[in-house]
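Throughout our pipeline, every protein is held as a single compact record rather than as scattered files. Nothing more is needed to write down the fold, since each code stands for a local backbone conformation. For reference, a complete record is included directly beneath this paragraph.
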Amino acid sequence: MMNAAKHWPSSLVQAKAIQRLGSAGISLIELLIALVISTVGIAAAIQAAAAYGARLSHQQVSMIGNQELRLGMDVLCSELRLAAGGVLGGEAPFLKANTNEAEFFANLGSAATTLTQSASPGLQDLMVEDGTDWPRGKQIVLCSATHCAWHQLASDGRKHVLTLVAPPTEQFQIHSAVFLLNRVHYYVKPQGDGLLRVMREVDGGVSTLLGDVRQFQLRYFDRDGRVTEDMREVVRVEVTMGVGTKGLVLSRDIAIRM
């Protein structure tokens, strides 16, 4: 009797402990449910991360395209402002002036020199301060205080000499200015999928100013603010360019001469 009484409490404690351990356990079904929930959560997180990455990538592409558009617009407009450089009275500032094309002469590099001796009619050599690296075949403008004349270089410029294809027909005094001109041509080139490429050509060398362009338009205005097709009347150009389907569209108004 004493042995039975002694073992009874321990048996009761053991039974209760087993009961507690059994109630705290996890069944296979519960484990599978937890696994499914975890899998769904991980898949949702992966999809959210992929969507965020795609959105971020799209934003980066859009930002790069917008930045390139601004830079391209700056180059185009800065050179259009020079379209009247070297223009003589009564001459048109543009060689071509269409909706998607503009061609003109401009002194892009600010290359200039002055006469160190008077230029006389019939003499092809101009004595100048410095004509180094002025290429053969380039157009130049020779200007005094009262008049200007266009000429073409017959050979590469030398340190103190510029040789003309044809001699001047008028006298130009010492210290008259000489400007080197570049032939600049902007136009669009289709590249498929409705996209355009804006091309920049300077003295025969062609490069892409801007790719993936959705919109490009040039409009020309006279002194009265009216759209004109007469190149001799153009004093202002409106430039519109846009990139991408939902990208930035810029429009600028350029005065080319007063």
